[in-house]
């Protein structure tokens, strides 16, 4: 392997991270592949061992692993300021772009052309979620214990209504108990300065509190916007297993329990999020936007929606920065801990059942838009099946597949199909 090249200047790295934010399509797997190709293979800013260790560490954390990996790599190159620039560059374009798309959907989503485009995109998202379910299931359900955890998680969430955080905690505790006799592994000592973790934790807490206090003073502690912020803060701490897991939880709670948005709107959000760069969990920003749009209260619809969307994004992404800045010096020690790995494996198994609840909801909305009495949406089924086949059997990039699905939905709408 060639030796690492000289570290980039801060300005060079900043330009790279911003560019990455505009081209990081393809979900976490595609985004991680882009970073590996550019940072390890092409530019040689980071060694293979450091990259792999960082990726394994990010997989242990709640939140979007691709964003956390970008923050870590930026931190590795230029410390705290490097991590901040890398993370903000990675998510900034997606935040701005999805804000625009959310407004267009809320304002014009009922028009026939928009309905047709969304028909194709929603069918494509159904195929993507089913693929993710099978892919994660093949990797995560390696033992009878893991299969049982997946089934139990599905029943607990879909049938019994057990809160998502309790499912995650229970699965982690079961995995930890199963590996309790595993030996402890000592890692290298951290180079972090004494007192640095406390300062980072305090700064993170203050950055989380400031929006909450400001909204509570201006609009009330029980206002929609305060509740939006608290809900997405909670969701950010239990997003183990990737975006699809937390989306099952968020959709159930926001649609079924709170009624802040409709199932149709949540599926449209998934479709729009797939068309933007950056982490797929950005869809939570769309959910916040629609909650504010549907219930503007004392604000106008646009102002309410934008405020709720930005609060949702802040609550969703802030923890990733804090986790990385706190944990980066301990990467090797954490990733070698067998007990922690066992707990994560159990959580990932439960996540398979949670994603299954999301797939079931999507199938109902996309394939049975009017319920069983309205019959199956055969056009949507055909688009979903074609997307599945294309992604499984060919090497066509995801953004081209989504474009074709959108055009197919537009054609169906123009021909009066369903």
Strand content: under 5%
Total count of helical runs of at least 4 residues: 17
Shape: globular
Structural class: mainly alpha
Biggest beta sheet summary: none
Q: What's the domain count?
A: 2
* Mean pLDDT rating: 83
**Low-confidence spans: pLDDT under 50, at least 5 residues?**
none
The count of strands amounts to: 0
| Proportion of helical residues | over 70%
Task: Give the N-to-C terminal Cα separation.
Answer: 54 Å
CA radius of gyration? 21 Å
**Secondary-structure element sequence?**
HHHHHHHHHHHHHHHHH
Question: Could you explain the architecture of this structure?
Answer:
- The structure is a single chain.
- Helix 6 (144-158) crosses helix 15.
- The protein has helices at 10-23, 27-42, 48-60, 65-108, 112-140, 144-158, 164-178, 196-219, 224-236, 243-257, 263-274, 283-294, 301-327, 331-335, 338-367, 378-393, 398-414.
- The model has no long low-confidence stretch (mean pLDDT 83).
- By secondary structure, it is mainly α.
Short description:
The chain is 76% helix and 0% strand. It is built from 17 helices and no strands.
Note the main attributes of this structure.
418 residues, mainly alpha, 17 helices, 76% helix
Give a topology summary:
Elements lengths: L9 H14 L3 H16 L5 H13 L4 H44 L3 H29 L3 H15 L5 H15 L17 H24 L4 H13 L6 H15 L5 H12 L8 H12 L6 H27 L3 H5 L2 H30 L10 H16 L4 H17 L4
Helix pairs in contact: 1-4, 2-4, 3-4, 4-12, 4-13, 5-11, 5-15, 5-16, 5-17, 6-15, 7-15, 8-9, 8-13, 9-12, 9-13, 10-15, 11-12, 12-13, 16-17
């Amino acid at each position: 392997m060639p030796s690492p090249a000289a570290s980039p200047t801060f300005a060079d790295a900043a330009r790279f991270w911003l560019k990455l934010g505009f081209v990081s399509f393809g979900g976490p797997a595609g985004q991680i592949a882009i970073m590996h190709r550019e940072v390890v293979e092409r530019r040689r800013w980071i060694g293979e061992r450091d990259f792999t260790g960082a990726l394994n560490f990010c997989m242990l954390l709640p939140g979007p692993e691709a964003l956390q990996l970008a923050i870590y790599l930026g931190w590795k190159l230029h410390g705290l300021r490097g991590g901040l620039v890398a993370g903000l560059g990675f998510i900034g374009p997606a935040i701005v772009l999805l804000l625009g798309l959310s407004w267009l959907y809320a304002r014009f989503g009922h028009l026939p052309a928009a309905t047709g485009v969304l028909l194709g995109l929603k069918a494509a998202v159904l195929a993507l979620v089913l693929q993710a379910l099978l892919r994660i299931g093949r990797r995560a359900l390696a033992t009878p214990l893991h299969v049982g955890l997946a089934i139990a998680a599905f029943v607990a969430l879909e049938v019994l209504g057990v809160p998502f955080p309790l499912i995650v905690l229970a699965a982690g505790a079961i995995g930890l108990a199963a590996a309790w006799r595993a030996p402890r592994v000592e890692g290298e000592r951290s180079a972090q300065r004494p007192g640095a973790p406390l300062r980072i934790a305090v700064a993170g807490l203050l950055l989380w509190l400031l929006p909450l206090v400001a909204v509570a003073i201006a609009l009330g502690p029980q206002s929609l916007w305060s509740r939006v912020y608290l809900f997405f803060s909670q969701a950010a701490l239990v997003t183990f297993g990737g975006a699809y897991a937390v989306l099952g939880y968020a959709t159930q709670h926001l649609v079924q329990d709170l009624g802040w948005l409709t199932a149709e709107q949540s599926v449209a959000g998934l479709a729009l999020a797939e068309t933007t760069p950056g982490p797929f969990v950005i869809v939570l920003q769309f959910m916040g936007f629609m909650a504010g749009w549907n219930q503007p209260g004392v604000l106008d619809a646009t102002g309410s929606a934008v405020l709720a969307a930005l609060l949702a994004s802040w609550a969703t992404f802030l923890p990733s920065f804090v986790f990385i800045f706190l944990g980066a010096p301990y990467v090797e020690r954490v990733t070698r801990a067998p007990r922690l790995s066992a707990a994560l494996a159990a959580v990932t198994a439960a996540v398979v059942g949670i994603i299954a609840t999301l797939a079931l909801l999507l199938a109902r909305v996309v394939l049975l838009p009017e319920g069983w009495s309205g019959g199956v949406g055969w056009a949507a089924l055909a688009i979903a099946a074609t997307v599945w086949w294309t992604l499984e059997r060919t090497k066509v990039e995801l953004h081209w597949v989504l474009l074709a699905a959108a055009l197919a939905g537009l054609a169906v709408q123009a021909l009066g199909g369903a």
